[in-house]
Amino acid sequence: MFGKLFKRRGEDIAAAGLYTECLKQSRLPAFYGAGKVDDSYNGRIDLLTLHMTVIMAAAQKFGDEGRQLNQALYDVMVQDFNIAMREEGLADTGISRRIKPMISLFFERTKAYTQALHGEASLTETIKSNLLPDGDDDFTRALSDYIAQSYAGVDAMELPALKSRQVSFAPFIAG
Question: pLDDT digits over 148-159, tens only?
Answer without folding.
Answer: 999 999 999 999
